[in-house]
Amino acid sequence: MNLLFVYITCLIATASAKKFKDNEKPEWAKKDIRDFTEADMERLLEQWEEDDEPLEEDELPEHLRPMPKINLNEINTDDPESLLQATKKGRTLMTFVQVAGHPSRDVTEELTKLWQTSLWNSHIQAERYLVDDNRAIFLFKDGSQAWQAKEYLIEQDKCESVTIESKVYPGKYSKPKEEL
Q1: Which residues form the signal peptide (predicted)?
Q2: Residue 32: which domain range?
Q3: Is 60 exceeded by the pLDDT of residue 17?
């Protein structure tokens, strides 16, 4: 049995060696891999991906995904935020969250971690990154969830403000600018 396996393996190797003789290879493929240029590597990648099945829409990189279909009849045209929310569906969106007062980085870390956990418990997925002692970025893979998260965040007593698409939403308990 083992001898038969070795024999078949040798036949396959011989057949594939005949198929890819050096004189049949393009000039760029005869080079040592260490001498490949970017163009050679690109050709090699294209050759590698030739027989791959195309990716599903949700597996494509964000810049190659088709824009979401928006039914304008279902959107309240008097509310520009609902239109913006609909256009961000399925797109990555960053939201800046400002913590009130002058907290230490550790306090901001704990507060934003608590808020992130609460959002996750409400099925709103957000990644959190601290950018300053009192400021964090919440990154939403589905940008339409940012407005739901904003509604939760501005209700928190330590939330100074939430910024989405350059629009600042003050927290419910934040002090007006004159008092600062």
Answers
A1: 1-17
A2: 2-49
A3: no
Residue 104 near residue 158 (C-beta atoms within 8 A): no
Global pTM reads 0.63
Q: Region 36-41: what's the mean pLDDT? A: 86
Token pair recorded at residue 5: 């396996």
Tens of pLDDT along 99-150? 998 999 999 999 999 999 999 999 999 999 999 999 999 999 989 999 999 9
Contact 93, 103 (CB under 8 A): no
List Cβ neighbours of 63 (8 Å cut-off, separation of 6 or more): none
Apex CA 166: angle with CA 144 and CA 179, to 5°? 115
**Do residues 89 and 151 both lie within one domain?**
yes
**Is the residue at 56 inside a domain?**
no
Same domain assignment for residues 88 and 159: yes
Same domain? 22 vs 88: no
Residues 33 and 117 in one domain: no
* Shared-domain flag, residues 88 and 31: no
Are the C-beta atoms of 105 and 133 separated by less than 8 Å? yes
Confidence of residue 155 (pLDDT cuts 50, 70, 90): very high
